[in-house]
Amino acid sequence: MLPFRRRVSRSGVAVAAAALVLAGCAGGAAGSGAASARMSDASSSTSAPDPIAWNECGPNLDCATVEVPLEYTEPDGAQIPLAVMRHRATDPTQRIGSLFFNPGGPGVAATDTLRNMPATAGAPGTFSPDLLARFDVIAMDPRGVGQSGAVRCLTDEQRAEAAGTGSDPAVPGGKPLPELLADATAFTDGCAAHQSIEFLASLSTDNVAHDMDRIRAALGENQITYYGISYGTVVGPMYATLFPDRVRQMVLDAPVDTGLWFGDSLEFLNEVAVASERTLNAWFETCRTEGAAVCPFGGGDPEAAFDALIVALEAQPLQVAPVEGVTPGGMLDGAMVLEAARGLAGDRVTWPALTSALLGAQNGDGTLLHFLWTSITVSPFGVPTAMHEVHTAVRCADWQTLTDVAAHTAAATEVVAAVERIGTRAAYSALNCALWPAPNEDRVTGPLTAAGAPPALVIGGRLDPVTPHHWAESMVETLDSAVLLTREGVGHGSYGTVPCVDAAVDATLIDGVLPADGTVCNLEQPGTTAPVAFAPGGGN
């Protein structure tokens, strides 16, 4: 799905962290209703865009480039290109309209996601045949993402050096604070050197929403239907708040707390760490409950074995030989084990892969675990990949991040004390934004109420590794009109993976029929060593 990562199969041990590609969610005064109105007026005064000139680019796919204003306060000023893809409705006689979607990140390329969707059936956010029959699905790479001028902050050499630099899981942020600050300075200087400050400042979600509306107009549609997952649940409410009359139906899967997103980035990241820790603890508990005969890692005490493995590999990393087409090889240390386990524990489908990988590393073979670690490209915390550069740039354009390093230290102290294993990994995660070179003074932040738009379907996972369930509850409270659907069990994102959820989403987007508020969809308890079977699903 992403140009920066190796494609892996959904089945077998290669399932891995690629299933979490939709995870993660990652200054200036908070926007107000007046700011929202100003931005909406600016868009409405912009001349109507030309119709999109599509070119066929794959089976049932069309591609195009659309020019949009760099800043909507200056609609006739500098323009930037956006990559757009359309999957034509497979049953044109029953076509309803255009379905826009954002697959999250921030930083996941929607065009790559749409192009590869047939190969990722069963992954979060995969559209059903019924939905594909009734809608033209529109994928827009948001500005700064994918083919829409992807942000680059480091050279390939710098990125390789960062990937090869060890991180100490016992130290908040992985390194002493002076080294973290030096890294953040090099990163942000690189961002400013590789693209203009004006472009970096324009990457905020309100501009993404305006870009969507320009494409809507170019398509000749009066309204759009929308599905967003993870960060896409920030884009959707932003669009519906700025343009409520242009929303036909909206589904928000694995929602972000938009109040925290725009107002308190340090608390936001600390709550992500707590959510990640809960899913890792769920794997520990399941392994312990199954017993050593079913889950042999740790011989009945997986937590102790896991902690011992991290300590041992920090003291003496495993040398992993290269395997053609799988891993280039290298060293596997304790910090890499922790990061891989964090990612794999967050998806119930990858639990068997996590068990096998930990057993292998415990027995001196780190090949599988190293492969799984290299497959992870999206993390709520900093990882040395090109994806992380886009992820950071979008977050920094949106977030009200404190420039006082002491505030980051206080938040790091809090998360390390509260979150036993993931806390140090999460500490200082917003430090790049504290030094961000492109302040966005007129960003729109909300509250994102979507007042005047149709009721939204909000889907929250009970054990989501990135967006905790209470964020879904918060979104329902913030939106003017919404219903909550809860998916029990582990995983980030629900549509495309759970039949009960799939039926509710399709009914909402196709027919405008939402489930009862408080509906619950159940999942079969995942196992640590066997593939997971779907439960039939159920009501509340």
From TrEMBL:
Belongs to the peptidase S33 family. The keyword Hydrolase applies. One of its GO terms (molecular function) is hydrolase activity. Residues 422-521 form the Peptidase S33 tripeptidyl aminopeptidase-like C-terminal domain. The keyword Iron-sulfur does not apply. It comes from Pseudonocardia alaniniphila. InterPro entries: AB_hydrolase_1 (IPR000073), AB_hydrolase_fold (IPR029058), Pept_S33_TAP-like_C (IPR013595), Serine_prot/Carboxylest_S33 (IPR051601). Residues 1-28 form the signal peptide. This is Alpha/beta hydrolase. Pfam families: Abhydrolase_1, Abhydrolase_4. Residues 100-256 form the AB hydrolase-1 domain.
